[in-house]
Amino acid sequence: MATFENLLYSLDAATGILTITLNRPSKLNALNAATIEEIREATQQALDDSQVRGIILTGSGEKAFVAGADISELAALNDISGRRAAERGQEAFCMLEESTKPVIAAVNGFALGGGCELAMACHMRVASENARFGQPEVNLGLIPGYGGTQRLTQLVGKGKALELLLTGDQIKAEEAHRLGLVNHVVPQAELLPFCEQLMTKILSKAPLAVGLVIDCVNAYYDKEMNGYQTEANSFGHSFASDDFREGTTAFLEKRPAVFTGK
Question: Hey, which residues are catalytic here?
Answer without folding.
Answer: 117, 137
